[in-house]
Write a structure and sequence with these properties.
This protein has 833 residues and is α/β, with parallel strands linked by helices. The chain folds into 4 domains: 4-215, no CATH class; 242-346 and 566-597, Transcription Regulator spoIIAA; 348-470 and 543-557, Transcription Regulator spoIIAA (2-Layer Sandwich); 623-830, 2-Layer Sandwich (Pseudouridine synthase). The chain contains 28 helices and 27 strands. The strands form 7 sheets. Strands 18, 19, 20, 21, 22, 25, 26 and 27 form an 8-stranded mixed beta sheet that branches. It starts with a helix and ends with a helix.
Length: 833
């Protein structure tokens, strides 16, 4: 278990401490031992990014099912956290048990994005694991990596012991089965790696080099794999804050720039029955209020309309929304739009990719301008006020006319909303990826990227058009690393040594260290970004991603001629090589349990006659005190939903549970008197539901009581007039009790104490003395008791009072322990509490 010093010496001093507290609902509670295979899944980005990734949830769920395996997670610390850890000499530890990385048997990295490579090295270094695979010996954990970036493993090969190429479910079970059986034996590290290298889809750089062809792993029967049925529920808001359910894998549309569409072939759809079963299980296990139906093109799922209708029939009562995050323009039908809006209008992002029909034929996108405009009109007419459009610049054969086409198309979409709507245009720079028809293509230089960005800045200035783009230097590095060889590992190591971290985050990214490191290593970016000889070998040729090189080359030639290739689901086989005798396209037919095609029915109207009010008292302690007010509120709502508490909901396009909370308690402060008030559509038996609610809460949050509030009970805002606080000064200063008493008396004698506080960038004057009703020592030491009442215009933070009275610096002030012990109710209210 983590020691108290982690909570006291680290978490109060870092940004977003909720990233590091763990204790989530559905997280594994097993602890590492000598008898178990101990695996930590490492995601080289922040908690909120990693916990949005469905692949991490899938693999974690699989490992959690095996009692012989202890699965844990670790995420890259934000730079402020890394600095604090290095200052205190603390290692990077797992989220579940606080175990240092070097004490695990396996550290498994998910490589999703090239600009996270420096984070991999930072995590290894902080975890006490040698950076280079050649320097690891004995009981040092095996470092294994997988994910889309592993389809070209060479730039990270110096740091990784073994790679899993392709889909990881079956490979993970085979790897853990092998290593679990070998644990406790006297097998040497080299023997373990040789045995791992015999598993299909596993690449071991030390033994394989580029001589052995590594064929990717593919699941033949996606429906047989139903994890995660009990996803881990994040404690803070994530990038994609919803339950993600994968409905299909693979895509045969054949977009020539899209690596995912090539390497994850063939298309395999889960059966509708499996999806419905998983959706019920996932919502029941999480209390979530939104399901994202995920695939590379959700609208292409064969029975998408019927599936959406059946799911919405089940979800509409409890206001669980559905989202389709990846939609082709032509697949977004009126029926899908109406199904989505039955509960909540989730966001729409449409991806024309190119601004002209000619260039869309070059990239084999296939959608038409009229499809986009028709879809945009339908979305706006259905009540949406904004729409996101995604385009790429720098695609092969791009001309000035194609750039003009992007601007023209954006304004045409805006006109479909009558200029009363908002259109966000997101521009990314085309990056040629391995195993795609464009893997030989040229990539724009940073100068060319800036020229195009300047063009769009001038061309698309309109108050209803938001223009966004990626940093051109980041795109350049992504291109270098995605098509690089082992020599790029030296660049990654050098920029890590120079302090690069979180390079995928704009506010953290700096190109200067990369630029100087490339100069020192003799790397000329323009050479690596240039078009490549189609007859010359490529660094990743030894990886068989399932699609023939000859097919990719032929597709590139067709692109240059502006010729399209039909989708093999509806047209003839293209001979790409993805389908074999064992594995082929699997499409779902209409499920017999689903209703016939019909118009969506409206959401049921709630009656207010049976409305009941309930007051909830809950505590924030230990890890829970590091959650913000919004994070705490979200956790409470999920727990009540998981316990099937019958909320009443607000009306409109974004219905929310009718629940109100008292004033926010500052992050880091403990409390035993947090309150919320629920409005329910049916009576509740508080004693029966209390345990179920607490079972759905993360560590550190606990509901203490649930009581019905009668018709005459005032609202929480009218009931609570202040709070009683316990203050422990011991960690912050060394005053004697007499000196402490003197400071308090001096403060209490004053009529007012005016100070300035910065709130949201504005300095505002506040009186610290006025709200303090009682301030005294609580016993013989430096424990204090403080009673503070509310003032007109808001509450005061007791830490501000303590900081002023004792003249604390920021570091010392953050070490003060404050506990909100009880609420000060009005006399009228005390009769109801």
């Amino acid at each position: 278990m983590r020691e108290m010093s982690f909570r006291d010496d680290i978490l109060p001093f870092v940004e977003k401490p909720g990233r590091y507290v763990g204790g989530e609902v559905n997280a594994s509670r097993r602890r590492p031992s000598e008898r178990t295979l101990n695996v930590v899944l490492a995601f080289p980005d922040t908690y909120e990014v990693g916990m949005s990734h469905v692949g991490l949830q899938i693999l974690y769920g699989l490992l959690r099912e095996n009692p012989a395996i202890v699965p844990e997670r670790v995420f890259a610390p934000w730079p402020d956290m890394e600095r604090r850890m290095r200052k205190k000499g603390l290692p990077l530890v797992s989220l579940e048990s606080g175990t240092p990385l070097h004490r695990f048997d396996v550290v498994g990295f998910s490589l999703q994005y090239e600009l996270s490579y420096t984070n991999v090295l930072a995590m290894l270094d902080l975890g006490g694991i040698p950076l280079f695979a050649k320097d690891r010996h004995g009981e040092v954990p095996l470092v294994i990596a997988g994910g889309p970036s592993a389809f070209n493993p060479l730039p990270t090969a110096p740091f990784v012991d073994a790679f899993v190429i392709g889909e990881g479910e079956e490979a993970l079970l085979e790897i853990t089965g092998l290593l679990g059986a070998m644990k406790g034996t006297k097998a040497r590290r080299e023997e373990k790696l040789r045995r791992l290298g015999d598993i299909e889809g596993v690449y071991v750089p030390r033994f394989h080099g580029r001589e052995k062809t590594i064929r990717k792993r593919v699941l033949a029967n996606l429906a047989a794999w139903r994890e995660p049925r009990k996803p881990v529920v994040p404690v803070i808001r994530t990038v994609h804050d919803r339950v993600t359910l994968e409905i299909a894998r693979g895509c045969t549309r054949g977009c020539r720039f899209c690596q995912a569409g090539m390497v994850w072939r063939p298309v395999r759809e889960r059966s509708a029955a499996t999806i419905l079963d998983m959706a019920d299980a996932m919502i029941g296990a999480t209390g979530g209020d939104e399901i994202s139906l995920l695939s590379l093109s959700s609208g292409d799922y064969t029975a998408i309309g019927d599936l959406m209708g059946t799911l919405m029939d089940r979800c509409v009562r409890e206001k669980v929304a559905l989202a389709l995050p990846s939609l082709r323009v032509e697949t977004l039908t009126d029926r899908l739009i109406q199904e989505i809006r039955r509960v909540r209008k989730t966001s729409f992002t449409l991806a024309p990719e190119a601004g002209t029909r000619r260039l869309r034929e070059v990239i084999n996108k296939g959608n038409r301008e009229e499809d986009l405009l028709k879809t945009a009109s339908a979305v706006f007419d259905a009540g949406w006020r904004s729409l996101k459009l995604y385009f790429m610049m720098g695609l092969p054969t791009e001309t000035r006319e194609d750039l003009e086409g992007i601007a023209d198309l954006a304004f045409k979409v805006l006109r479909e909303g009558g200029f009363r709507r908002q259109v966000t245009v997101s521009l990314s720079t085309f990056v040629p990826k391995p195993h795609t028809p464009f893997q030989w293509a040229r990539q724009l230089t940073t100068g060319e990227i800036r020229e195009r960005q300047d063009f769009f800045r001038k061309r698309m200035g309109h108050r209803n058009v938001n223009l966004r783009w990626h940093d051109g230097s980041m795109s350049l590095l992504e291109g270098l690393l995605s098509r690089g060889d082992e020599s790029l590992g030296a660049l990654v190591h050098e920029v890590f040594r120079r302090g690069c971290r979180m390079d995928g985050w704009g506010e953290q990214f700096s190109f200067a260290p990369w630029e100087s490191a490339m100069a020192d290593l003799g790397i000329v970016p323009e050479r690596l970004l240039d078009e490549r000889d189609r007859d010359a070998p490529l660094p990743w040729d030894f990886v068989d991603a399932g699609v023939h090189r000859a097919f990719l080359a032929a597709e590139y030639e067709k692109a240059l001629r502006g010729e399209e290739t039909a989708d093999c689901r509806t047209g003839p086989c293209t001979g790409c090589g993805a389908c074999t005798k064992e594995i082929g396209i699997v499409l779902e037919k209409k499920h017999p349990g689903m209703p016939e095609d019909r118009s969506p029915s409206p959401a049921p109207v709630e009656s207010r006659q049976d409305s009941r009010r309930y007051r909830v008292r809950f505590a924030k302690k230990t890890e829970g005190r590091f959650l913000s007010h919004l994070e705490t509120a979200a956790a409470l709502v999920r727990a009540f939903r998981k316990a099937r508490v019958p909320f009443r909901f607000s009306e409109g396009y974004h219905p929310q549970p009718r629940i109100s909370f008292t004033d926010a308690t500052p992050v880091g402060m403990e409390s035993f008197c947090e309150y919320a008030e629920l409005s329910l559509r049916a009576p509740l038996a508080p004693g029966d539901v209390l345990a179920a609610v607490n079972d759905g809460l993360p560590a550190g949050l606990e509901v203490l009581s649930i009581e019905e509030a009668g018709p005459g009970t005032p609202s929480l805002g009218a009931s609570i007039g202040g709070y009683v606080y316990f203050v422990d000064l011991t960690p912050a200063l060394t005053l004697t009790p007499e000196e402490t008493e003197g400071r308090i008396q001096e403060f209490m004698k004053k009529a007012s104490v005016k100070t300035w506080k910065n709130r949201k960038g504005k300095n505002r004057e506040q009186d610290l003395r006025a709200p303090v009703r009682l301030f005294t020592r609580n016993g013989p030491g430096n424990d204090l008791r403080m009673e503070m009442t509310f003032l007109e215009g808001g509450t005061r933070n007791p830490l501000d009072v303590v900081t002023h009275v004792f003249g604390l610096e920021e570091e010392a002030a953050r070490a003060v322990r404050i506990v909100k012990e009880e609420a000060l109710f009005s006399r009228r209210e005390e009769d109801h509490v």
